[in-house]
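Question thread 4412

I'm putting together a teaching handout and wanted feedback from people who do this every day. The idea is simple: show students a protein as raw sequence, then show them the structure tokens that encode its fold, then repeat with a second protein so they can compare. Below is the first pair exactly as I plan to print it.
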Amino acid sequence: MDLTCRFLSREAAHKTRGALRHTSRRAARHLSGVALLALAACSSGGTGAPGTAANGGPATGARNVGLLLPLSGANGALGNEMVVAAKLALAKQSGTVAPPQVDVHDTSGATGTTGAMQAAIAAGDGIVLGPLTSADTGLIAPQAIQAGVPVVAFTSDLAQARSGVWVFGITPQQQVARLVEAARIEGRRQFAAFLPDTPLGRAMGDALIRSCQNMGLATPQVVYHQTSSEAIRSELATLSAYDSRSATASGQATGPAPDLPADLAAALSSASKASTAADAQSPTDPKAVPPPSTSAASPASTSTTTTPTLSAPPFDALLLGDTGLALKDVIDALKANQVRSTQVRLMGPGLWAAFAGKLGGIAGAWYAAPDPAARTAFVQQFAAQNHRVPKPLADLAYDAGTLAGSVYAASGGNGYPTDIMTRKEGFSGVDGAFTLSEDGRTIRKLGIFEIQSGGGTRIITTPVPKNPLVPGSS
């Protein structure tokens, strides 16, 4: 992306700093809206190193923390809640260094997200927490990098990660990698995915392929399905090899074993064909076996014939990505195609946590998410101050505030150096421990949650290796 934004001079920054702060505080007193968050399209950005200005020198006024969030409009209520959470974290005293000052900039104001970022630079903010979405992150990244201001964005779109711009949301890639790691420990070796043809589904599919590659597993088969129930059932039948499994179960899979010598296999095959032809020509022969009256049942068949129990599908771990009514259709298709949880470890997105109590139909399925036990103290703090329970995204803002406060204290109040932000020991947060990588990723320790038959979940700290349900294990 071309760097087309002009930046205020240092003198202009000092003159406008007080006015900008006053405007932010005044706007924060007149906020309302609906907390809605959606992933947006990705944008590209530039390159550079955080903590330095465009000319390679240190960024000016690098002590304040800037919050870039929607303080008005559709996402105003959510943005304000995240402001409260971030300020709660930043108010904590760490050692002998006083907490940093906080500037709030409205990304829904007249000048938009780029104007809010320009205001943060003019105010001398040394780090920016926000913005909220992927698209907004792409817009402000070139400005931030040019000015040497590190950004901790709340998006979960990993495409926005780069040096100096950290993707702080819990990404699909993090979730899938954690699930594959746990399933591999359990003994799963053949992975597959049945995912919606959406940006989330595509991100999960790419993550599964990469995770399997990184862990030395076979390349998974990934299917992106259409939304109709008919398409879901049909495409899952293909993925699970329903027809061949059904034919085998019905005794229609004839022919010699593949490991016989070629000449013996040919002889047996010829004899089998001759015998079948003779039987067909002599229906009155008492030794003849009548041919089956119907073909192998399909999952969509309306026949009253009992469908035989099928063998396991050609995978022992299956990644799903649907929610809502589409997930119901997927669950119905799993049953129709006899993809059973006794043979296959089902896995899904962390979004399942919001309605896990309704997922008893896929009991035993896993999803990866932060351990809610670590959130308890924050919820109590937030509720005591605001008389309500915080929304989940407030967690990210609180953890980002904790990060900024910790780095500021560790630097002795001198700003937000990259080497401290990316320290190996990482940071503790209400969504679990995390570390920042130099390429803009946030690495989190996620828990594995297993859906229970009666609804609800239980957290699994360590999967048991060599699960006896896995074919070939002991």
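The second pair follows. I'd like the answer to focus on this one:
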Amino acid sequence: MADEDIKLESKKSPVVLIAIIGVVVFLLIIGVIVVMLLMSGGDDKQVAQAANTPSAQVAPKQRSNDFFNIGPVYPMEQYVVNLLSESGTRYLKTTMNLELSEETLSPEIDKKQALIRDIIIRSLSAKTYEDVSTAKGKERLKDELVTRINEVLRDGYIKNVFFTDFIVQ
């Protein structure tokens, strides 16, 4: 009798094990399908509509090099900052203009003037003389300014920065 109970238990355990594995696999498949649906986003009409809204404009990864079609230019005030140095005796005096993607960006720039000025001052004062004394260094500085300012803008983007005055002492 004990032998019969052992035989019945050994016959039941593979069936139960297969059933449990089947349920787990089924749940995993359902989970993968749900995740794929959630990550696929909205339908094409919603995506196309969002792309046409002004707030959905995305700033390009690089500054504009199209000097034949310069956009509206926003003049900035003069900046005088200490450059990063051990002796603390290096200064940078600069004036710049921001090339805007469109004229409707000007009111946002006016509204965020203090924030943009802070971004520019922090970027400039974090540079050393060696960082800004070469043409390549100035280009990298322009790239950094464009990227950092564009992070806080919604109604358009900065295409380029033009230095109209640049003196290092």
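Top answer:
Good format. For the second protein you could add a caption like this: The first strand starts at residue 73 and ends at 75. Helices lie at 2-39, 44-52, 106-111, 113-125, 129-132, 135-150.
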